[in-house]
Amino acid sequence: MEAASRRANREAERKWKAQQQAQIAANAEDAVADWRTHLRDIVSLHVNTIDYVDWHALKRQTAPPSPTRQSKNEGAAQDKLDLFRPRLFDFMSGGSQKRQQKLADAVGNARKLDEQEFLKSVEQHKQAHAEWETDKALATRMLAGDISAQRDVIGEMTSWKDEGLIGTSMSFSISENFLHAVAHVHDDDVVPTFRRKQLQSGRLSETKMPAGERYELYQDYVCSVALKVAGDLFSVLPRNEIFVTCCAKMLDKSIGHLSDVPILSVQIVRETFKTLRLSAIDPSDSMKNFNHIMSFKRTNGFSPIEPLKPIS
Length: 312
Description:
By secondary structure, the protein is α+β, with helices and mostly antiparallel strands. It folds into two domains: about 180 residues, no CATH class; about 70 residues. About 50% of the residues lie in helices and about 20% in strands. It has a six-stranded mixed beta sheet. A hairpin with a 4-residue loop joins β5 and β6. It starts with a helix and ends in a 9-residue tail after the last strand. The mean pLDDT is about 80.
């Protein structure tokens, strides 16, 4: 009995250790996957831009048609009444006259239902027509280059508010001649300081990420933000070029404190932007396609620059 008990205990311990090892391996696999996903996300912000708004199509769109009265329900009820014939066993349900009256009452109720549905469609049409008028008026203003309309559209955009990786805030300078978007991006701690991999044993291994690799990932992140901002603005504004400046907190050696300074400024032209295969480009290398200012070294990262347009 004691030998059997010891065998059972050893088997239970073996199973417990196997379960623990499997859990450790699963946790390590998840940790590595999370690390890889984060790195992918911060350098591919530009890949998914918001839906394109075709202002010309909105301006051409015709008004929604007015609703017409329908008698679908009344017609169906009337058909049943017209087909009414006395039956031998009508006395079991109150007689033929009672059954006929129920069908006649159903016609009246169906008529009321048709009226209710019509009134509902009238209200829906009023709302749709009001939205059509609003969209058409906004499209007209946008295509005329109305600055106020462009500010309104930018104010309604939520892509940057909802996307925590973009940065901490956005600001804009808008005139007839140019639009300058200023993105206050995260500092370099958005990039992990470590590498992760899963060992053959299943355990998680974390090692320090080389400084040069980390700086390059941060550069890709900043450039991805610039492309994302321009792409989203091109989607909703009829502008042919967008100036984007990215600012980050860096040590201001003149005062010894951290302050927001510009580290990338780029003039992105719509026609050139449209030729980019966003899912395949290297964000940093793509800056070569545009007029830009960026001071970056693999050994120490970004340095402050003077933006292409003043930051107001």
